[in-house]
């Protein structure tokens, strides 16, 4: 039976130090069937160039008829003092709505762990 994805997570995979370098965001989606799914990224509501990210083919979850997939986005160093919001958008044939998760990356955020530690991730759930 077809099932739209129900779980979506978005995490900072690696942060840069110095902050002028790139960071990486990981978007994971699971518990969907059939495996036909589309993952894409937005930066402040604009579609991100496909050369900035890589997405896996859906993989069967062990011991299940459901699938999971992930996508990793290279976030370049800051080009403006304003934080950017990155959104992972998932479309599945069995769902009439898009599933999405967003994170704001702000290199001016200070971590209590010191410079470059804690990811500079501000906001988000």
From TrEMBL:
* Gene3D superfamilies noted in UniProt: Immunoglobulins
Q: Which UniProt key words apply to this protein?
A: Disulfide bond, Glycoprotein, Immunoglobulin domain
Write out the transmembrane intervals: none
Pfam annotation, one family: C1-set
Which InterPro entries does the UniProt record give? Ig-like_dom, Ig-like_dom_sf, Ig-like_fold, Ig_C1-set, Immune_Resp_Modulators
Leader peptide range in chain numbering: none
Q: Which residues form the Ig-like domain?
A: 25-106
> Could you identify this protein by its name?
Ig-like domain-containing protein
Organism this protein belongs to: Macaca nemestrina (Pig-tailed macaque)
């Amino acid at each position: 039976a077809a099932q739209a994805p129900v779980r979506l997570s978005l995490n900072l995979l690696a942060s840069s130090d110095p902050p002028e370098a790139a960071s990486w965001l990981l978007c994971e989606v699971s518990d969907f069937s059939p495996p036909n799914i589309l993952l894409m990224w937005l930066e402040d509501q604009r579609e991100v160039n496909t050369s900035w990210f890589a997405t896996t083919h859906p993989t069967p979850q062990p011991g299940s008829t459901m699938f999971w997939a992930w996508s990793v986005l290279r976030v370049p160093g800051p080009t403006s003092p304003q934080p950017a919001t990155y959104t992972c958008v998932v479309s599945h044939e069995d769902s009439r709505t898009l599933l999405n998760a967003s994170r704001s990356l702000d290199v001016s955020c200070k971590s209590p762990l010191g410079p470059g530690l804690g990811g500079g991730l501000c906001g988000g759930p």
